[in-house]
Task: structure prediction
Amino acid sequence: MSSTSASNGSDDTSAGEEAGTGTDMASQNAAGSGGLGSLTDRQKKILGVALVVHLVVGTLTLRDLRRRPAAAVRGPKRLWRLWVTMNTTGSVAYWLFGRRRPDDQL
Result:
């Protein structure tokens, strides 16, 4: 029984330490993460440009997917649409690998 009470005592101590650490981390995260307000003007501009580029490239890619016949696309069009909407990498991959060239269609 003494080993059980000793282990309970150590569990309580470690649980108390973890709880204290969690509280400290929560206060640090709250202070450090101010959302867009914590970004500098330059960072906001870069983020804005990246967002516009992503939207333009994604829109052009989705338009090409819609107009292109399924035989001219490598893989399922539905999968490409999903990947394109998730991130810019999907659009780049579609333009590099997802489209069949006229000589590939035969």
Remarks:
- The radius of gyration is 26 Å.
- Residues 2-32 form the longest helix (31 residues).
- DSSP finds four helices and no strands in the chain.
